[in-house]
Amino acid sequence: MVDFIDVNKQEYGIELICRVLPIAPSTYHRAKDLEECPDKRSLRSQHDDYYISEIKRIWQDSKCRYGARKVWQQMKADGLQVARCTVERLMKQYELQGVWRGKGKITTNSRDDQKRADDLVNRNFNAQRPNQLWVADFTYIKTMSGWVYTAFIIDVFARAIVGWKVSNRMNTDMVMAALNQAITDRNNPKAVIHHSDRGVQYLSIRYTDKMADSGVIASVGTTGDSYDNALAETVNGLYKTEVIDYLKQQWQGVNDVELATLEWVDWFNKTRLHSTIGYVSPFEFEKRYYDNLTLSGMAA
After folding, report:
1. Which of 30, 80, 250, 289 is least surrounded, with the fewest CB atoms within 10 Å of its CB?
2. What is the mean pLDDT of residues 221-241?
3. What pLDDT is recorded for position 35?
4. What is the per-residue pLDDT for 118?
5. Are 21 and 1 in contact (CB under 8 A)?
């Protein structure tokens, strides 16, 4: 709700939004104050931030295989004194879970396979028009204050980034913010296919309900197969190469990563030349498409 207020407060005002949402203005201002001054948070909250950064590091180093027990054991081996119940609580809160022998990777919000969307793309990442096919994925960045995550939604037609979000939490709220931005900026397109992997964030009830309510058609790739979302993986790779690795700076946390991402997305969409669309920018490629439609209409 805090993110929603941040996005819409200039248009509606904080007080008006809070009358509609189940949140008091004082709660919002308190949350923003704690964002700007983290040292005001409770000692437990500050400890949690440190522990979760270490938990994510160990979990990522294990290629997302370790569950709470092994993460806890590795933390003890690294000299970190933390209760196992704390590790379990934080991993559940941040939707981190390892693999179980014979059962594959288990996620906290997993849903029955029969309820999940089919793969409507089958690795055919081509589109004949804007808002025909979107692909979604997220990646992670190590910063001085812990792991930071960036979610992207890409329109396949022109490779334009139509939604993105930087967050210190790898949860449904993060990918939901990117989806909301894409839907709003693209003027609520109907029947656009949204393709993702089987990450728990994309399979959550809130996320799938939002797509259904907005007329977005869900498509989900094969479990554990990155080729089934290769285009999104490519954009993640470009982002890591052209922003995170290229700048070679010591990233402090969400704020500086978000600023760098904002600048890169603007350049990526408006200026960067893409070989797959004839060495023009995504926005220029889309402009040519709409210009041709206008000319065709005039000729008819």
Report:
1. 250
2. 76
3. 67
4. 81
5. yes
Sequence-separated (6 or more) residues with CB below 8 Å from residue 257: 141, 143, 148, 150, 166, 244, 251
Closest CA to 264 of 284, 247, 248, 287: 247
Any idea which of 45-59, 146-160, 252-266 has the lowest mean pLDDT?
45-59
Spatial distance between the Cα atoms of 144 and 207, rounded to a whole number of angstroms: 30
CA distance 291 to 298: 11
**H-assigned helices in the chain:** 2-12, 14-20, 25-36, 43-61, 68-77, 84-93, 172-185, 200-203, 205-214, 230-239, 254-270, 282-299
Q: Sorting pLDDT into bands at 50, 70 and 90, what band is 270?
A: very high
Helix axes 254-270, 282-299, angle to 10 degrees: 40
Would you kindly state where each structural domain of the chain is located, as residue ranges?
A: 2-102, 118-292
Domain 118-292 homologous superfamily, CATH: Ribonuclease H-like superfamily/Ribonuclease H (3.30.420.10)
